[in-house]
Write a structure and sequence with these properties.
The complex is a heterodimer of chains A (172) and B (154).
Chain A: H1 5-16, H2 19-35, H3 37-40, H4 46-64, H5 66-82, H6 94-101, H7 104-113, H8 117-127, H9 133-140, H10 144-171
Chain B: H1 3-18, H2 29-42, H3 55-80, H4 85-95, H5 97-120, H6 122-152
The chains are: A mainly alpha (172), B mainly alpha (154).
Chain lengths: 172, 154
Amino acid sequence: MQQYQNMVFSTAMRLLANQTDAEDIAQETFLRAYEHFDEIRQSPTAGGWLKRVATNLCLNHLSRYRARWSFFSDLLGSQHEADSEPIEFAAPDDLSEKLEIADRHEVVEHALQKLPTAQRVSLVLYHLEGLRYEEIAAKLNVSLGKVKTDIFRAREALRKKLRARLAEDVVT
Amino acid sequence: MNSEYQKNLEARIDRALKALPDLPAPRHLLPQVMQKIARLNSLPWYQQPWQAWPVALRATTLAFLLASCGGLCIACWQLTRAAGFAAATQEIAQTFSGITAIWNTVNVLLTALVLVLKHFGTAFIIGCCAAFAFGYAICVGLGTACVRLAYSRR
């Protein structure tokens, strides 16, 4: 349990962006693991099992508030489109150089947690959980187009947040 | 949208996210889980979920449930073949005859209502709905005005 606690907590924290909820989900995950202790004790894929359970519990938790967050996501999305600006073509090494200056991980983590829920969840499932667009759409019960749009917006938002945050850090 | 740009962005975000180390779990997480497990274990077996019961007890209860279910099915079947069954069902039907009468009356009334509506035509129905909506809107409006008035005097 000690070996996996950080992994389980991180999975929950990145999907929920809420410390209390993430702790509850982590606890629930370990209690489920205890119930299936005989099955997973010797399993080499115990880590994967725990991660999958934590992810599913997070998605269940989020689906309870889904109507709320999808509404706000759409609202923010349309607002975003309304004042959409031409996309900047960042120089390839610009971001990575700045990331080396600042405390990279903390900045990325902070920026990730500040993303709107719909965007953050899709982004985390795609990049960190390794799910395909179709799988994410099925898990979240949304259209494939929405998943792609959310992930694209999330990447853009993340890039902008990181640039802004790193610029601040460099100035101060 | 420039696909080269998108690929580039995807690759860089992917690298940045995958490079993230695990977040440290709060120190109280493990003790809390252990506490909950201890509490679960301290419960007597009959308060624990059925899956956690001893195998012998699980097998016994399962056999008991299956036997009860089978016994109930056989009892029902035997009951239908009993001598007094027809008389009993007739008596029950007589007890609920009042409900049948009510249902028949409601049915006749609804049929009559449908015939009346058909006679007056669609325009009449739309007019009725509009009048109802108008009346409802007036009630809401008046209610809102009264509440505002009441609160403004405070």
